[in-house]
Specification:
Blueprint (H helix, E strand, L loop, with lengths): L1 H22 L11 H33 L5 H21 L19 H29 L5 H27 L4 H10 L3 H11 L1 H4 L3 H24 L6 H21 L1
Helix pairs in contact: 1-4, 1-5, 1-6, 1-7, 2-3, 2-5, 2-9, 2-10, 3-9, 4-5, 4-7, 4-9, 5-6, 5-10
Length: 261
């Protein structure tokens, strides 16, 4: 437990740091990222999350269930559906606003646009933190090394760079100072170490449900990809760059997982 907790703190610390580094771009670039570059970044993040959902979450969930003598696809499918429903519920309840959107989502609120933008990114980071924490908990449970879990943390961290930049630049566009935009952009990633450490702390109690929880995190991540990232990566002209971003992100995460996992 101690090793898993320390490694999960380190892994989610990496993802949080990468979000902060991305948010720091607000000090060096204009208030808005180039449209084509933004589509590439969004597509890349989607590709990383798709590959991570398959190789780092769904496949280990099925293997874990089969090792216990169960039918692998049952918790994989069931947990995935529950993860989708969970994120769908949060998406409809928590007030948030996506970059370049004029209409907030969730329940009606009087919160400012900058706060709603931060809320949207924070919402997306919850399943990512859970995924990294669960991967470390699974490695500790099976007495395995933590390489695969660390690969997932690195992959999530890489795609957090453009996400951190997107939220901080969007808040800068709303009129916040560069320092405030950086602070809020960084804090949007703080939920990742929080949720990552929480799931490790609960690992002993949730151990029988580990395959379901891994699939749950995968479903939540896939919901974000299909509902938010891919549509935003393909708005307007030159949508092929978003497609190439998805493929690039998927390839990099796949290679990292297979080569280093």
């Amino acid at each position: 437990m101690k090793d898993a907790l320390l490694m999960a703190a380190g892994g989610t610390g990496i993802t949080f740091l990468m979000t902060a580094i991305g948010a720091a771009l607000v000090f060096f670039v204009a208030k808005k990222v180039n449209v084509i570059a933004n589509r590439i970044f969004l597509g890349f993040a989607a590709g990383v999350m798709i590959a991570a959902s398959v190789w780092s979450l769904l496949i280990p969930a099925m293997e874990e269930e089969q090792q216990r003598g169960g039918i692998g696809w049952i918790p994989a499918a069931g947990g995935l559906v529950l993860g989708v429903l969970f994120l769908m519920a949060l998406d409809s309840i928590i007030p948030h606003l996506h970059p370049d959107s004029s209409q907030p989502e969730g329940v009606h609120t009087s919160m400012k646009r900058a706060t709603l933008l931060m809320s949207a990114m924070t919402l997306h980071n919850i399943p990512e933190g859970m995924a990294v924490g669960l991967s470390f908990a699974l490695a500790a449970e099976n007495g395995m090394d933590f390489t695969s879990a660390m690969v997932l943390a690195i992959g999530i961290g890489i795609q957090n760079l453009p996400e951190g930049a997107a939220v901080s630049l969007s808040m800068r566009k709303e009129g916040l100072s560069a320092s405030k935009a950086f602070l809020r952009g960084s804090l949007s990633g703080l939920v990742e170490p929080v949720f990552g450490i929480l799931v490790v702390l609960a690992a002993s109690a949730i151990q029988p449900f580990m395959p379901w929880l891994l699939s749950f995190a995968a479903g939540a991540m896939l919901y974000v990809v299909v509902e938010e990232l891919i549509p935003e990566a393909h708005l307007g002209e030159h949508s092929n760059v978003g497609t190439l971003g998805v493929i690039g992100g998927f390839l990099i995460m796949m290679i990292l997982d297979v080569a280093l996992g």
